[in-house]
């Protein structure tokens, strides 16, 4: 049962097709997670004690429990409280929520490295806090934590593979299906790995290019 | 002291965990007047400017800008009312502050640095704001640098962008924190020239500076500050020529002496072996 | 949907055994992975193209494919090359390998964020690069390493669940046994989530203490500036 | 409204399947096929269902899915055991999962005792796991050393790879699956011998939610009918190459639903 | 030019993607001599000091310290041999460099900043290294600050710690990069005094500076650098009094003028409205 390269090649087209599911979901999730993560960060910066206490528990839960279980909760437990979501919506909701927390935590780290001077200048000129967030803090923050966000994006792409447990047939599930009928789990997994590698390298590369572009308008 | 004061500071105090950075500070600046504020390191100059723009909340005392209370208002029957954030923000554009570190926004071009506050704070149309910014930058000799990002500007050019940004808001008063101290020596002259031109337009200015030469030649008045309060003030030339307090005298000795090297060998050093 | 807690009462020894192994695997993979990560990070900051290229191939490959695939390649690939080791050992090594790529990236970024002058001033008095790293760079970088390393360690701890698929009897594996016997998914998932969460809280608390010890000065300097405290810190209490 | 009534009313049926278990249910050319699928097609016909949604998902999602009502029943072969039977309603068995040992081609394992000192693999939490444990105990009781190690895999295909690369020496699994595999890879694998059944119940069936006994009975009725008119045996010949006997009763452990 | 040169730099060149920061730079510094290096911003002064300590690898040229080749050696028959990292590290303690940004190690106390390089590089026993550090800090007037961390020191005190750190290695030559430019004016005098005392001990020094006063009074020689090479040098007073090249003349004009304010109004500013 040695490694059969021809078999690997023969399944790549089908795997690539299945990867479109992951890419599509990941794109939506990343966009939502960025938006919600930013909002959560701004919310936390208001330092309203009860709110931040709740946020702290949510963050601890999301960081502390497996993503798989969070996905289960979104799809299988939420119907018990009257929220019956389709698999894709539940998956997007669960991973976005998870990623939102990690985005916000990354922002917490990034904020500490921003020079307060330009914010003081903005305040002294009379810019209102929402404007300062939107025009001064966030643009600098995003540039600064770009590498971390790219990292998170690749994690999200990998996370979409877990959605097979809620009936989303993605690359990994397709690979498993192939393995079970061909009895070649090794080749199919390597095939899936290649597909993920290509997608994530594309993201990393795009990120690096964007980073280099930002570097031109460096801090 | 000709007209109604544009800036009136009374009994301003600010303490940082044990350090009294401002200690019942009083100062009036009249319209069109140029006041140079000098004093030793750590005497509270930067803290004053930060309190005047309410970046730091003073513990006590009052600030009036063009006759209107700023930050805190004394109401009838001695009640002190804290102004809301919105009220404070509304008055802030009246006071232009140029920071020692300039604090340009690194992610925006020079032009955008000047345009953005106008559109956002004053609600000016973009075209109008751009026109004004172009004009200001042009007059400050930066017409060809408008599209550059701050990191690609020299120290003197950055300084002028920071000044343009403050001027674009049409402030009643400009505050400068050591406008030349972070500059290479060849650039100092350039910036002082700008300040002088600005003075000539009748702009009211409060300038924290170590350039005694500038203070003497351009300022109407010098205020010498020590330990959080003004301890001597008067017409610029007079103050420098005839310091009354011993503290000012020794300060001036130190600062004016810097071109000469102290001759006494006060420190014993090990012989090289 | 019923929730039958008696299952957990019956099966807790299995789950406890699994949790204990998960904890040990996490600690071992953390130690191994961090050492490897530091080595790769040092490779990445060496002058010259080749070491940097090697480091970035290592990091990008391991970071960009799902861990389960790395694990399978190691676990099923090793016997093909004649090496035969206990599954727990192989699994822990694979986990360490996976984490090391992320740790390497974290360490690399932290070192690059330190002003160059710090390293140079050590070199210029005659310290060797290794001495400069040890005496000057490492103590300063420690502080910035803590938060992202904690994030990664938590991710890795949870990722260790994947080891169940190569017969490592850790928490998830034991929970699958319980589930196979009882067919009670929700009870088992709830218990497993709670146990993982507990372990995570332990890790987060340890890191918080470490952070407090190495980062006190920085926190103080941020909260001293009111504008920085307002926009640039999320956790400090509101001043007055 | 019960699930069965809902199915009748809407003419729509949704089932959950782990399509990674040949020859029972697996994916070929993008479609779920296999012995189980063929039976399902008959069930659909008999129940008068017009639209069938068959969802493929890994085992971890199957039970939560049926409990949360994401599909109407589990149309994937599930081994019958005592504890499970207390919580779910099993249909009539669709197959007899006679446990069998498989070895690498040419290895000298021909009788149960040859498994002494060997590394044996099977699927974690499957119906054959208790069978394997019982076998080990039996070997030890007979004075032998027992298995060198029992390795439990989360999926069967991985145990096959482990057998092929020498990680383990034998796989215990139900005969229908092994028969197909050995036919597929005759140069690698070889059937060794049947192992005793006394570890538990080895019949394979589908399950419904515990409160859907009505639906369960309806499905069981179709299966019984298929068995009686020979359709089931024909399908067994088609997929496994041999027919098996399906009992009318006694397949459920005491206390089952 | 009395004795054998402690430092001999010949034909040193360094290019950064297109910018020629050093362009066949030549300079000799004799034992006990104090040379002030002046020149406009960006002319390559910092790059020179970095090349002299081999922090930056020069593209071309040779450096000799106390008669021994440093970094690159010219072998018989014109072969150039690159020294190994170990050889370079071994010579480095002979050259003390005080950076413009000081680069004290913030996680160590002032004392530890001075002790650590001695124990690590020279292999001195801790007790011995501590004794020397205490002595040095004491002579530099920092006895009571030895236990403090850098962030709790004033600019002048930090500068002196950096100097002590370099001196503890007993260098044959000290290099200073603009030792006063980052300091408050009152601190400038303090640091210049230290440099002067150091000069009095016979230490050989190369000082990059903008303080023409210091250069004239303390340095034996001034070298004026522009575009990566020395274009004029000579006895300090003479060079300042009689600059020969027009470039030095205009540079001196700019730098010496700074105490006076330029009187011409070169920039037109908008009138306040
Ligand atoms: N955020 C702060 N926390 C604690 N102490 C502070 C803070 N800001 C200023 N101080 C202290 O307040 C005093 C006044 O500082 P300030 O910066 O106003 O001095 P300065 O006159 O501007 O000095 P320099 O000329 O060096 O800029 C100093 O003793 C300083 O240490
Ligand atoms: N790492 C670098 N990469 C690219 N260009 C550099 C680098 N370092 C210096 N330069 C360029 O080399 C030239 C010399 O720089 P250097 O810092 O030596 O000047 P300097 O004389 O020390 O100036 P200053 O008085 O402003 O400190 C400048 O044009 C500078 O832009
Ligand atoms: Mg100040
Ligand atoms: Mg320089």
TrEMBL record, chain A:
<dbReference type="GO" id="GO:0006865">
    <property type="term" value="P:amino acid transport"/>
</dbReference>
<protein>
    <submittedName>
        <fullName>Polar amino acid transport system permease protein/cystine transport system permease protein</fullName>
    </submittedName>
</protein>
<keyword id="KW-0812">Transmembrane</keyword>
<feature type="domain" description="ABC transmembrane type-1">
    <location>
        <begin position="19"/>
        <end position="207"/>
    </location>
</feature>
<comment type="similarity">
    <text>Belongs to the binding-protein-dependent transport system permease family. HisMQ subfamily.</text>
</comment>
<comment type="function">
    <text>Part of the binding-protein-dependent transport system for glutamine; probably responsible for the translocation of the substrate across the membrane.</text>
</comment>
<dbReference type="InterPro" id="IPR010065">
    <property type="entry name" value="AA_ABC_transptr_permease_3TM"/>
</dbReference>
<keyword id="KW-0472">Membrane</keyword>
<keyword id="KW-0813">Transport</keyword>
<keyword id="KW-1133">Transmembrane helix</keyword>
<dbReference type="InterPro" id="IPR000515">
    <property type="entry name" value="MetI-like"/>
</dbReference>
<feature type="transmembrane region" description="Helical">
    <location>
        <begin position="15"/>
        <end position="42"/>
    </location>
</feature>
<dbReference type="GO" id="GO:0022857">
    <property type="term" value="F:transmembrane transporter activity"/>
</dbReference>
<dbReference type="InterPro" id="IPR043429">
    <property type="entry name" value="ArtM/GltK/GlnP/TcyL/YhdX-like"/>
</dbReference>
<keyword id="KW-1003">Cell membrane</keyword>
UniProtKB/TrEMBL annotation, chains B, E:
<dbReference type="InterPro" id="IPR030679">
    <property type="entry name" value="ABC_ATPase_HisP-typ"/>
</dbReference>
<protein>
    <submittedName>
        <fullName>Polar amino acid transport system ATP-binding protein</fullName>
    </submittedName>
</protein>
<keyword id="KW-0813">Transport</keyword>
<keyword id="KW-0029">Amino-acid transport</keyword>
<dbReference type="InterPro" id="IPR027417">
    <property type="entry name" value="P-loop_NTPase"/>
</dbReference>
<dbReference type="InterPro" id="IPR017871">
    <property type="entry name" value="ABC_transporter-like_CS"/>
</dbReference>
<keyword id="KW-0547">Nucleotide-binding</keyword>
<dbReference type="GO" id="GO:0015424">
    <property type="term" value="F:ABC-type amino acid transporter activity"/>
</dbReference>
<keyword id="KW-1003">Cell membrane</keyword>
<dbReference type="GO" id="GO:0016887">
    <property type="term" value="F:ATP hydrolysis activity"/>
</dbReference>
<keyword id="KW-0472">Membrane</keyword>
<feature type="domain" description="ABC transporter">
    <location>
        <begin position="7"/>
        <end position="252"/>
    </location>
</feature>
<dbReference type="InterPro" id="IPR003593">
    <property type="entry name" value="AAA+_ATPase"/>
</dbReference>
<dbReference type="GO" id="GO:0005886">
    <property type="term" value="C:plasma membrane"/>
</dbReference>
<dbReference type="Pfam" id="PF00005">
    <property type="entry name" value="ABC_tran"/>
</dbReference>
Automatic annotation (TrEMBL), chain C:
<dbReference type="InterPro" id="IPR043429">
    <property type="entry name" value="ArtM/GltK/GlnP/TcyL/YhdX-like"/>
</dbReference>
<feature type="transmembrane region" description="Helical">
    <location>
        <begin position="183"/>
        <end position="204"/>
    </location>
</feature>
<dbReference type="GO" id="GO:0043190">
    <property type="term" value="C:ATP-binding cassette (ABC) transporter complex"/>
</dbReference>
<dbReference type="GO" id="GO:0022857">
    <property type="term" value="F:transmembrane transporter activity"/>
</dbReference>
<dbReference type="InterPro" id="IPR010065">
    <property type="entry name" value="AA_ABC_transptr_permease_3TM"/>
</dbReference>
<keyword id="KW-1133">Transmembrane helix</keyword>
<keyword id="KW-0029">Amino-acid transport</keyword>
<keyword id="KW-0472">Membrane</keyword>
<keyword id="KW-0812">Transmembrane</keyword>
<dbReference type="InterPro" id="IPR000515">
    <property type="entry name" value="MetI-like"/>
</dbReference>
<dbReference type="GO" id="GO:0006865">
    <property type="term" value="P:amino acid transport"/>
</dbReference>
<comment type="similarity">
    <text>Belongs to the binding-protein-dependent transport system permease family. HisMQ subfamily.</text>
</comment>
<dbReference type="InterPro" id="IPR035906">
    <property type="entry name" value="MetI-like_sf"/>
</dbReference>
<dbReference type="Pfam" id="PF00528">
    <property type="entry name" value="BPD_transp_1"/>
</dbReference>
<keyword id="KW-0813">Transport</keyword>
């Amino acid at each position: 049962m040695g490694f059969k390269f021809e078999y690997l090649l023969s399944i790549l087209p089908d795997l690539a097709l299945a990867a479109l599911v992951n890419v599509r979901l990941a794109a939506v999730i990343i966009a939502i997670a960025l938006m919600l993560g930013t909002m959560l960060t701004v919310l936390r910066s208001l330092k309203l004690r009860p709110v931040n206490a709740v946020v702290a528990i949510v963050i601890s839960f999301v960081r502390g429990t497996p993503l798989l279980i969070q996905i289960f909760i979104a799809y299988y437990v939420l119907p018990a409280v009257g929220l019956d979501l389709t698999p894709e919506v539940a998956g997007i909701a669960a991973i976005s929520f998870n990623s939102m927390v990690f985005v916000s935590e990354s922002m917490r780290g990034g904020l500490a490295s921003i020079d307060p001077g330009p914010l003081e200048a903005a305040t002294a000129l009379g810019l209102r806090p929402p404007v300062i967030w939107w025009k001064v803090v966030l643009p600098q923050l995003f540039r600064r934590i770009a590498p971390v966000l790219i990292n998170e994006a690749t994690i999200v792409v990998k996370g979409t593979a877990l959605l097979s447990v809620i009936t989303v047939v993605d690359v990994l599930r397709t690979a498993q299906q192939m393995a079970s009928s061909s009895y070649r789990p090794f080749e199919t997994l390597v095939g899936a790995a290649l597909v993920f590698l290509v997608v994530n390298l594309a993201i990393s590369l795009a990120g690096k290019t964007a980073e280099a572009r930002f570097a031109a308008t460096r801090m | 002291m000709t007209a109604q004061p544009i800036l009136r500071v009374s009994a301003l105090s600010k303490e940082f965990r044990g350090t009294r950075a401002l200690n019942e500070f009083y100062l009036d600046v009249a319209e069109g007047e140029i006041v140079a504020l000098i004093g030793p390191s750590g005497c509270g100059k930067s803290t004053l400017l930060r309190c005047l723009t309410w970046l730091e909340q003073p513990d006590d005392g009052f600030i009036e800008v063009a006759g209107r209370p700023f930050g805190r208002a004394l109401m009838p029957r001695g009640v002190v009312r804290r102004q809301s954030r919105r009220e404070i923000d509304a008055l802030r554009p009246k006071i232009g502050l140029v920071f020692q570190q300039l604090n340009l926004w690194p992610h925006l071009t020079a032009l955008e640095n000047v345009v953005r506050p106008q559109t956002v704070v004053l609600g000016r149309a973009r075209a109008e704001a751009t026109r004004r910014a172009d004009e200001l930058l042009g007059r400050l000799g930066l017409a060809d640098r408008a599209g550059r990002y701050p990191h690609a500007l020299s120290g003197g050019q950055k300084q002028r962008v920071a000044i343009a940004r403050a001027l674009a808001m049409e402030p009643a008063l400009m505050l400068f924190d050591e406008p030349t101290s972070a500059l290479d020596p060849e650039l100092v002259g350039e910036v002082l020239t700008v300040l002088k031109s600005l003075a000539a337009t009748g702009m009211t200015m409060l300038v924290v500076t170590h350039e005694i030469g500038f203070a003497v030649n351009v300022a109407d008045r010098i205020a010498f500050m020590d330990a959080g309060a003004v301890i001597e003030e008067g017409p610029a030339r007079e103050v420098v020529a005839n310091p009354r307090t011993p503290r000012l005298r020794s300060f001036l000795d130190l600062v004016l002496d810097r071109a000469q090297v102290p001759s006494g060998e006060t420190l014993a050093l090990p012989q090289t072996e | 949907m019923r929730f039958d807690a008696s299952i957990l009462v019956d099966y807790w020894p299995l789950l406890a055994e699994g949790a204990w192994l998960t904890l040990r695997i996490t600690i071992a993979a953390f130690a191994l992975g961090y050492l490897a990560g530091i080595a790769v990070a040092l490779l990445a900051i060496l002058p010259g193209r080749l070491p940097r290229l090697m480091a970035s191939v290592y990091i990008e490959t391991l970071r960009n494919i799902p861990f389960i695939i790395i694990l399978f390649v190691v676990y099923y690939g090793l016997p093909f090359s004649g090496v035969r080791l206990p599954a727990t050992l192989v699994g822990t090594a694979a986990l360490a390998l996976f984490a090391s790529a992320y740790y390497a990236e974290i360490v690399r970024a932290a070192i690059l964020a330190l002003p160059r002058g710090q390293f140079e001033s050590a070199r210029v008095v005659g310290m060797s690069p290794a001495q400069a790293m040890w005496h000057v760079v490492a103590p300063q970088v420690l502080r910035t390493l803590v938060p992202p390393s904690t994030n990664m360690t938590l991710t890795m701890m949870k990722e260790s669940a994947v080891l169940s698929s190569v017969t490592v009897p850790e928490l998830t594996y034991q929970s699958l046994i319980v589930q196979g016997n009882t067919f009670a998914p929700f009870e088992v998932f709830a218990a497993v989530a709670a146990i993982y969460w507990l372990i995570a809280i332990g890790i987060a608390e340890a890191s918080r203490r470490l952070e407090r010890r190495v980062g006190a000065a920085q926190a103080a300097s941020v909260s001293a500036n009111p504008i920085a405290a307002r926009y640039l810190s999320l956790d400090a209490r509101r001043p007055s | 409204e019960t699930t069965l009534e809902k199915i009748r009313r809407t003419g729509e049926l949704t089932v959950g399947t782990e399509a990674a278990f040949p020859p029972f249910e697996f994916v070929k050319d993008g479609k779920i096929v296999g012995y189980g699928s063929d039976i399902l097609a008959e069930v659909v016909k008999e129940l008068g269902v017009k639209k069938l949604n068959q969802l493929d998902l890994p085992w971890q999602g199957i039970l939560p899915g049926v409990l949360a009502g994401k599909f109407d029943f589990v149309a994937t072969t599930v081994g019958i055991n005592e504890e499970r039977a207390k919580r779910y309603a099993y249909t009539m068995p669709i197959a007899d999962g006679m446990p069998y040992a498989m070895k690498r081609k040419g290895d000298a394992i021909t009788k149960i005792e040859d498994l002494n000192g060997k590394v044996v693999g099977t699927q974690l939490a499957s119906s054959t796991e208790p069978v394997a444990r019982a076998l080990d105990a039996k070997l030890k009781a007979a004075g032998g050393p027992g298995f060198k190690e029992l390795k439990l895999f989360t999926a069967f295909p991985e145990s096959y790879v482990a057998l092929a690369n020498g990680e383990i020496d034998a796989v215990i699994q139900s005969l229908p699956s092994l028969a197909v595999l050995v036919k597929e890879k005759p140069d690698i694998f070889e059937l060794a011998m049947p192992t005793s059944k006394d570890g538990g119940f080895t019949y394979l069936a589908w399950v419904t939610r515990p409160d859907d006994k009505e639906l369960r009975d309806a499905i069981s009725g179709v299966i019984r009918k298929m068995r009686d008119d020979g359709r089931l045996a024909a399908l067994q010949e088609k997929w496994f190459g041999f027919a098996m006997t399906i009992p009318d009763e006694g397949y459920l452990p005491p206390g089952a639903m």
